[in-house]
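User: What would this chain look like folded?
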Amino acid sequence: MSVRVLLVDDQILMRSGLRKLLEIEDGIDIVADVGSGPAALEVVPVCRPDVALVDARMPGMDGIELITRLTADYPAVASIVLTTFDEDEYLFGALKAGARGFLLKDASPEDLVAAIHRAAAGATVLSDQVAGRVVAQLRGETPVQPVLSSREVEVARLVGAGASNREIAAELYITEGTVKNHVSSTLRKLGLRDRTQLALRIANGDL
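Assistant: Here's the prediction, encoded as structure tokens.
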């Protein structure tokens, strides 16, 4: 029997890409793709997914709020966060809300497909990067160094080169809003106040 999957992401290109990627996989059936939390709650009773792939950051209702609602109202749906942002607030917020998994969008197609099947079977699935942080949190350990995603590193280095958000967006083929999110995430992870401090850190070879 195929795993019925619901895609929830406010970026239409991401939803389209995920649909095309997963539709060719045996054992996976994409039953719907929507761009918001409220839309997801509307279609769940109709399409009856086994797994919901949910973006963490969405306008209006974010992924954590959506997963909280899904866990309460549709506990049979296994939610997996699939996001660019791996901040602790999203990771631990999602797990506390009832998510069965947390993956970054740079995960390989094979890992994503395997995660869907494992979550549908009742397992908890975490990328290696975030699993280590969960273990450290449980042990009361403080990570030695915050982990930046590959995209955050790219954005940070362009900030260090003096590029504006618009220039970075054009260079990396992403939106200015996404650039701002990456910059904010990087500053928060590194404990920096502003772009100037980030640029100085990069100039010192600390990234």
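The domain at 3-139 is CATH 3.40.50.2300 (Rossmann fold). If you want, I can go into more detail on any region.
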